[in-house]
Amino acid sequence: MKDIRIITGKPIIPPPDTVNALFAGTHTAPDVSGITELYDRLLPKLKLHTLPKAALCIQERKNILHSDHYNPDALLLCAMLTIGSSIQRLIDRYAADGDPLAASLLNAMADSCLFAWEEQLHSAMLTLCREKNCGILRRLELPSDLPMHTQKAVFEALDADRTLGLSLTEGYMLSPEKSMSLIFELDELAPKKVPRHDCGKCRHPRCGFHSSVNLQIEQIRTDGTHTSPRTISCKKGSRLFDVLQEHRIPVSADCGGAGTCGKCGVTVRSGSVGVSPEDKLIFSETELNQGMRLSCNIRLEDDLSVLIPQAEETAFQILKGRTSYVPLAEQARYAPGSYGIAIDIGTTTIAFALLDLHTGICAASHTAINSCRAFGTDVIRRIQASNEGKKDQLQKTIQKDLLRGIDALLNQCPAQTIRLQKIVIAANTVMLHLLRGYSCEGFCRYPFSPVTLEREVLSFTEAFGASFDAGTPDVILLPGISAFVGADITAGLSTLSTRARNGSCLFLDLGTNGELALFDNHRLFTASTAAGPVFEGGNIRWGTGSIPGAIANVSIGEEGPSVCTVADMPPIGICGTGVIETVSELLSAEIIDKTGKLKEAYFEKGYPLANTMSGKTILFTQRDIREVQMAKAAIRAGIEILLLTAGISCDKIEQVFLAGGFGYYLNIPKAASVGILPKKLVSKTTAAGNTSLTGALFYLAKQTDAVLSELAADAVDVPLAADKHFQELYLSHMEFEKIT
What we know:
The chain is of the alpha+beta class. The protein is 33% helix and 22% strand. Helix 4 (86-96) packs antiparallel against helix 5 and helix 16 packs across helix 20 (668-674).
């Protein structure tokens, strides 16, 4: 009598990664957004319509293969698996009802269940092998290793019609369709593990696991020359934008690949790529004919060659900070040759400084772009990316940025023997969470609950995931105040004089996160408002970073606009200061009214500022103006809420400190004319530079633990979203004031 083991399983939840791979290999529609939602909707039906069942037995080779080429008495492990027929009927029903997307996804989910069912059976297979004192030598694949008619012998050996309710077609295919057979060659000396499917032997024409395409990439430099071609082998069905991210090829993406900003454009040089609705909105007919496409909408179905604009990374004009010497407290002084590194991780940029801990001299500095920009220009998009499974990728990205920056910093002092004692890092709370690999779920809903706001002291390996041979420095992450008022603000506040902190002053960091702080007679109030990336050129149609060619200054006279660019290079876009100056000048020239509406002549396409070298017109659009209105209204409303909370008027403010690169280069009167600042504060406003980096240097030089702890403990964080007056003030400041 045959020893057939029959095993019945429980409903299986198909692994999303497996489903994605299978779905990418079979679904050809260009728009696969909302798949997660559809997966969740189909999952209960999948569970209801699947019944995992399997039959296993061990047979002599001669009973299955009928071959003289091998030892006929050798043993084979035979198995047949099924998840039943009901699921295939459900798939067919969706297809018949005109819902091919659901049918295709459900088909991938069912296949994934079948593969997961095999994984669950591995322990039962090994138990059966141990009874025969055998291991599994190799897996025999159909039809690459064995002819398809072998399936008939396995079917008969397992009595599959009786044990599993299966049938066999004339072409030796199993029915129901969601079934499979497995054959393993056994041997007494073989390892006690089950070999998995070899994708290299698979002949499935569109399998998402083994199908790959070749992607050839060239980057075009700002001077028009091209880099050497680079070829990447990637999984068929992958999104081009994601492939570029994975291989650290920077591409602009204010929206994080959501298809809304229009800045991740590439030129398809060879290969076939359709035109998406988003492509039609962004590119002209001429550009589409030239092969321009958004990388976030390209699915790699066949080999492709693309031309990508070289990213702005190496050309950014970044504020490094103005500190060249920091007086050392005696307890912070080390022996000659001892150094510390201060790091400011900004949302857009990263700044490094090397401090001699014997003399207090800043020996070197370095700046870089935060590569996490590829996941979105603001922290909200990065939080979303982290929570959608990219947490590890984000952590590795920022760790690599920091390691490269530290190397670049130390390489500026090649002749010196450096003993690194400390590395101090200031950053917003989200960036510190990404660096540590912490969950960002706590940032998603009010009341926000970050994993930690405390100071952390780590080893180099704990912080950066790598070893270090120039000492054993402690890595110190400075403390923050709240989920969105982080260690960068605590560090910046620590640089203000005791007099400023004891008086009445405003501290504003007008980056993507819009952090605000108000000191009033030893009291400290803080807030954060979602200004967005407008102040750094984000969410602006022709917006760009502070790179050569970025329009930074604008004036509009009777003869039209006149612009000045960074490094006096030909115009390529508009950076943050240029955005504010453009709005100020449009108001002054009465080309926009107090509601922000452009004159009829410019309403549809936008106001032309300049032409690029290629002849394209750099336009400032109606949507750009709305972005500025929302950002400036958020900042202004935030300032007024802090004043209301403290119970003081604007007149009492003695000083205003503008932190960060945007504030440093900002034309303050024009910022006030747009409405970012009250006009009566213009004369009291000072550009403070990179206070976050300076604060990290102060920590190295003065061990400012007490000051930082006091700031973090004493701060009253004002949640603007929960304030009943904020929305009213926000709406009131959407309009512009008349320029006199």
